[in-house]
Amino acid sequence: MLVYLDHFVGFLIQFGSAMALCLLPYRESSFRRSLRWTVCLCVLMVLLLSAVFPLVLMLGGFLYTARINLAGNLYMFFAILLFCLFYFRNIRVETIKKWVVLVLVILYSAALYMIENMLCSVLPFEEGYVVYSVYSVGLYALLTLLLFPLMVFAMRRVVLSYLDEIETRYIGREFMALFAMSFLYLAMLVGYTSMPGYVDTQYWWIIVPAILFALIMFLILYYLLV
Q1: Of 93, 104, 174, 222, which has the highest C-beta tally within 10 A?
Q2: What mean pLDDT value characterizes the chain?
């Protein structure tokens, strides 16, 4: 039961916070359906996905095996794809602007993930072959408590104003380059953490450059937005 709760709460915090950030930098008129309908559907979606996630790991026999990270990443990709289908369909703004928001949230989520992994690697935590442990859920909750309000402020103030004022033709090549770098970074991150020996590897020396990369991407994006 404790393992189920760890994975339910961990997925809920990690995926739910990212989902909420994707919806923040839009005015109510930008949604095809009412804002209340959209929020209710998103809450239902994230609760169902969070509830099913530990069941997939348990019933699939992935818990406490070297395949746990690969299974977790594949499920997360499925959840992201499901949300993206809803996100791109339900928001009525130019597609490039939707991508701007999505990439910002991906960078935030990836940086949060890497910080949590770095802390778990240097602190004396015994996690084993699980996606979320009591320690990692606690770290995610703490990091989200610290960083999520800053992202909410940035989305509601900086990004929302930017999307209102900027013309699509001015976004163009700069953001397409950032999109490519961001997804390359994400592919590197997911590919590395999906390797069978990932849990037993001393990888802090790989995490530090990844966090620096994410920080540089944030600074570039902020410079372009302001």
Answers
A1: 104
A2: 78
